[in-house]
Amino acid sequence: AAVNEENRQEGLPEVEMGIGVHTGQVVVGNIGSPERMKYGVVGSHVSLTSRIQSYTIGGQILISEPTRKEVRSILRVGKQMEIKAKGFEQPIPSARSEALAGHTSSLCRRQKMRSFPCLRRSRSAIPWSKGTI
Question: What is the mean pLDDT of residues 48-74?
Fold first, then answer.
């Protein structure tokens, strides 16, 4: 929000981003030789996440079908689509994330998400907006 405020004052365009989310196993850790090591994440699921994200527009969150199945009890999805991702033979079923459903705090306790700021209990859905991303 502060960056966009500065941009508005200077007559520059606002910064917007879209988010792509996919679920799958990856290799994560220090990669390389001791002389040239970096912490990284590799695997086809990383590539697919990047491809999904490339279809987003500012403020939009697209999730893959495996992710939708994992979070279906706490996430309300909107328009579903198929993404033709480079390097993948079959179209990738994806959906637009619209809102978090209520009662997420018990899920956070079950999943032991201590480092993730879990949401308070709510009977209504929490819609995404540009201000919440």
Answer: 90
